[in-house]
């Protein structure tokens, strides 16, 4: 993949940890200059930048709450001021406040929807205005297997990700032919957050995934680089499920013991 994205500038939201960090590092390895967005985890964003820089790439951290229309628009302006243009937007930042539908508060709802759906709507519009002036670009939304087959305790999250997939198709139509818009839908992934829900997370999800394992952050890099690159010149409006076959059967392990309390503790 080296140099496949040479000369391109990519912005990854929520890139201080987890999937976002992996995508930022992977896009840089493919030759892109990377804008690393974070909301509160400045140290994590700096670690992402350091990983990229140590490998010979170029990255800069940008703080912004992308759930805010104004903040996201200012972020797009800042990235373009720093790098001169923007070719790839990866709407990765996400919020999870899991729980039974009767337990979801209005605060929970707003937090999840603002970050997972409202932000990508206005951020994509802001990015698209810049991309159209330069002749084109690629927008990649990070969805979830939860938008395809229902998972217990995921009501607001599932709704937001389902909306994100609909937004992907809608923007692909409205922004064609200059801008391509696609989505990647991850499966159960080995991250600190997911292991925090249940120390036995990986074993339980591995047992119900046809591929025989959970995903790792690196599994999403190749698909993301492909969608960002000219190799995907005729690919738009698509939802790519990177799920080890999970959506072929789609049942979940016992989640009754998951500790979702940490979701409300993140800033």
Give structural attributes.
alpha/beta, seven-stranded parallel beta sheet, Rossmann fold, single chain
What can you tell me about this protein's structure?
There is one protein chain. The chain has 267 residues and is α/β, with parallel strands linked by helices. It has a single domain, classed as NAD(P)-binding Rossmann-like Domain (Rossmann fold, 3-Layer(aba) Sandwich), CATH 3.40.50.720. The chain contains eight helices and seven strands. A seven-stranded parallel beta sheet has the order 3-2-1-4-5-6-7, with helices on both faces. The N and C termini lie far apart (35 Å). The mean pLDDT is 94.
Topology readout:
Blueprint: E1 9-12, H1 18-29, E2 33-38, H2 42-54, E3 59-63, H3 69-83, E4 88-91, H4 106-134, E5 137-142, H5 155-175, E6 179-186, H6 192-197, H7 201-206, H8 221-228, E7 239-242
Helix pairs in contact: 1-2, 1-8, 3-4, 4-5
Counted by DSSP, the helix tally is: 8
Helix content: 40-55%
CATH topology: Rossmann fold
Computed over alpha carbons, the radius of gyration is 17 Å
Count every beta strand, where a strand is a DSSP E run of 2 or more residues: 7
Helix-strand sequence: EHEHEHEHEHEHHHE
Largest β sheet strand count, sense and barrel closure: 7 strands, parallel
Instruction: Using the alpha-carbon principal axes, give the shape.
Output: globular
Q: Overall mean pLDDT score? A: 94
CATH architecture descriptor name:
3-Layer(aba) Sandwich
Beta-strand content = 5-15%
Low-confidence stretches: none
Q: CATH class, please?
A: Alpha Beta
> What count of domains describes the coordinates?
1
In spatial order, strands of the major sheet run: 3-2-1-4-5-6-7
Euclidean distance between termini CA atoms:
35 Å
Strand pairing plus helix content: what structural class? Answer: alpha/beta
């Amino acid at each position: 993949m080296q140099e496949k994205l040479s000369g391109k500038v990519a912005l990854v939201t929520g890139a201080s940890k987890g999937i976002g960090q992996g995508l930022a590092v992977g896009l840089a390895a493919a030759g892109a200059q990377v804008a690393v967005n974070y909301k509160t985890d400045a140290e994590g964003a700096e670690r992402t930048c350091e990983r990229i820089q140590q490998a010979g790439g170029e990255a800069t951290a940008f703080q912004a709450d992308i759930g805010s229309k104004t903040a996201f628009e200012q972020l797009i302006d800042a990235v373009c001021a720093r790098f001169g243009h923007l070719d790839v937007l990866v709407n990765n930042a996400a919020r999870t406040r899991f729980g039974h539908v009767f337990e979801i508060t209005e605060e929970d709802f707003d937090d999840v929807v603002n970050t997972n759906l409202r932000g990508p709507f206005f951020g994509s519009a802001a990015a698209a205005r810049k991309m159209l002036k330069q002749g084109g670009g690629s927008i990649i939304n990070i969805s979830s297997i939860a938008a395809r087959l229902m998972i217990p305790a995921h009501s607001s999250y599932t709704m937001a990700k389902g909306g994100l997939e609909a937004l992907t198709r809608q923007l692909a139509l409205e922004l064609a032919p200059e801008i391509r818009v696609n989505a990647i839908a991850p499966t159960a992934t080995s991250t600190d957050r997911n292991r925090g829900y249940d120390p036995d997370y990986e074993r339980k999800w591995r047992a119900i995934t046809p591929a025989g394992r959970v995903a790792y952050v690196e599994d999403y890099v190749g698909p993301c680089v492909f969608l960002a690159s000219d190799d995907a010149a005729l690919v738009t409006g698509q939802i790519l499920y990177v799920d080890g076959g999970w959506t072929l059967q789609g049942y979940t392990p016992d989640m009754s013991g998951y500790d979702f309390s940490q979701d409300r503790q993140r800033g």
